[in-house]
Amino acid sequence: xxxxEREALYLGALLxxxxxxxxxxxxxxxxxxxxxxxxxxxxxxxxxxxxIAAFHHLEDLRRSNLKGSLRRLAEIVCEADSLASxxxxxxxxxxxxxxQSIFSAVRLGETQxxxxxxxxxxxxxxxxxxxxxxxxxxxxxxxxxxxxxxxxAFLQELAQFGAAIHPDTLLALLKKYLWCVPSASYRxxxxxxxxxxxxxxAALAVCLYDFLQERPDSSAQSDVFDRNENRFRLxxxxxxxxxxxxxxxAHKGALRALKGRSFYLQLLLQVAARELLxxxxxxxACLLYASGxxxxxxxxxxxxFSEVLRRFEQEAQEWLLExxxxxxxxxxxxVELCGxxxxxxxxxxxITRKWAEVTEKIEQKKRQPFSARITQEDFWDPWGxxxxxxxxYATGRYLCRTGEEAEKLQAEVIFPYQEENExxxxxxxxxxxxxxxxxxxxxxxxxxxLLSPDAPGDGNALFNGWRFRIYEGPPEVGNVQGExxxxxxxxxxxxxxxxxxxxxxxxxxxxxxxxxxxERAQGSRLLGALRMDVDNLGQIFRDGLGAHAxxxxxxxxxxxxxFFFAGYLNRLRRLRWSVCEGVQQNQGDQLKDMIQIxxxxxxxxxxxxxxxxxxxxxxxxxxxxxxxxxGNPYMTLSGGIALFPPKLPLYHxxxxxxxxxxxxxxxxxxxxxxxxxxxxxxKNALSFLETPxxxxxxEVLHQWxxxxxxxxxxxxxxxxxxxxxxxxxxxxxxxQNIWGRWRWRACYSLARYANQHKAFADxxxxxxxxxxxxxxxxxxxxxxxxIPARWTEMLTRKEE
Length: 800
Hints:
Layout: H1 5-14, H2 18-26, H3 32-41, H4 47-54, H5 58-63, H6 68-85, E1 99-100, E2 119-120, H7 140-161, H8 167-178, H9 194-213, H10 221-224, E3 230-240, H11 242-247, H12 254-280, E4 287-291, E5 294-300, H13 305-324, E6 329-338, H14 350-366, E7 389-391, E8 398-401, H15 405-410, E9 414-417, E10 426-429, H16 430-441, E11 447-451, E12 460-463, E13 466-471, E14 483-487, E15 499-502, H17 514-519, E16 527-534, H18 537-544, H19 551-567, E17 576-578, E18 582-584, E19 589-590, E20 595-601, E21 604-610, H20 614-628, E22 637-644, H21 650-665, E23 668-673, E24 676-682, E25 685-688, E26 691-694, H22 695-713, H23 720-735, H24 742-756, H25 761-773, H26 786-795
Parallel strand pairs: 14-15, 22-25
Antiparallel strand pairs: 1-2, 3-5, 3-6, 4-5, 7-8, 9-10, 11-13, 11-14, 12-13, 16-21, 16-22, 17-18, 17-19, 20-21, 23-24, 25-26
Helix pairs in contact: 1-4, 1-6, 1-9, 2-3, 2-7, 3-4, 4-6, 6-9, 8-9, 12-13, 12-16, 22-26, 23-24, 23-26, 24-25
């Protein structure tokens, strides 16, 4: 198919380094630009694409005979490649090394020393097959064999598409295979994937091309390589009111709508970003990141940029205000970038300051919601109904005036909602009905189709003319009119379809509602809400990468964090839980029947479920995150668990879990080594049963809970031991003196109890030793003894 000059530039930039993949697989010694040209020549007939890749190094370009527009295109990709690298290029390409985990580069201060160097094996980026980083470098022959197998699989799949492949499908295919291949293994730190480097190069090339197109008379080479002029814009979009919107649901029917609302907001974010790309006529590679309620777009600093962005923000705010009455908003901020912002080795890196600047602007605009809409006169007009009205049973929002119910039902603007044994008619909004239906459909959804405003076909309304369709199985090719996004897989189908793939956390839904879910709890019939996120993430992005905080590394770090939360955590659906073993593979009840990931992406998560599994789920997530980040002591998680009865509105539980998480974030304790205090640490903790606990201490408390639980279940001790432990804790709490009189009273009480329960005597002696010496915990054990006591009491409680 014929390509425009701009399309040829984009494809040449996207594939400019594909020769590095072949070079490592076949151990060839030709320069990688020539190998890239050979790969492209086998796929595309357009000579421009091949030539752009062949001459994307300045030294090769200077020796070439390229002239006119083709030389100009090669110069643009050459500069884009250099800016995407962000570091001085080395000449040698001989060292064969795997991708180093981006987390090995993160360091905050000196307190924890240097993080370990870990290496990312070749593998798949999905929750089922993801290979964790390894500390040992593979043997060169073994590494080359892995590259060869990976390369052959890539060629085989690429051949199924041929030259008809859609550019966005090609981008998805590159992500599947290049996410674990280093961009430059000959550099000192090969921690940027070839995928991130390639897509950023393509994004920069298109933006630079658009910028230079506004000055067609300028053809000097120096014009392309000018790094002092602000030629780019970094745009950030932030959806506001997410938590208030998701959790503002009555408890009846909440679980059916909860997942739908959460996923709807993720689609809203994706579509808002794509609508901005559509208006700026930018490819998907320019969408740097979209998760956690935020998107980042790289755009050209053209004359029409400001007006396009102003109108986009205003129209988006109008649509959201009309549909959600201000519950959800969208704010946009941007900063200008020049070439110098991408390069350099100073600390802080120039691009770090730009990320911080756009973040500060976003936070300021959050304090001015709907500012793009407020300048219009009708914004201040009275609105809303008067008199007797009907409101949504689930959310409390206005539906219609009393007496209009039949008309609105027929028009499917409102929907009936009838509870068992209730005669009073109740209604829910169209939005709430769609959220429930979406939540049901997601249980078996394979793909989502996004239809832009100018695309044909029907679908569910999404955003400002955009629609979506859900497919529970592979759709018929002829029926797809828009972008087909495969869910929680890295697969795409052969053909000319416009395809991509994305992760979303919690791709399952358990049956029933909060009342039914509470019946599955062990002991106390309670539910729990768990919130967790990465500690010090703002500081990590600002300072953690030091002088090496290039644009590519910042994006790579964001991408990998999002994969852990939105992708890898879906592994929970295949795991089981038991009181004694916690979360594991083989024993106990299936977790997918006891928890639901409401949201997981970016750097945080929110999970609801039966109360008894959540502390173990939190500990499992913390352990897996530690493996995922290669044991980096600067990459930690904190979380909070709130327990609640099934009748409590969800937003109350969410608020309480948020407060518990903040308590964990504020938790400071003294760390001892061999009885000597060596440091004061904060965060890296979980708040459970209203008490902040370090992860190490949670492990110790869990072990004691298991010992108490098993002894009670086996009748080796009565539940009266729990009251004794409560008493010891209460006496300690009165004065909080580690050397207070509670010590001798506890000694006397536990000794008597041991004489009365010989089968549990050894355990009680060990418990007393831990109480008095705290050899296993970071905090004083006596200050935590109520946790295993209450934990066990709740697990062994008999409720009808």
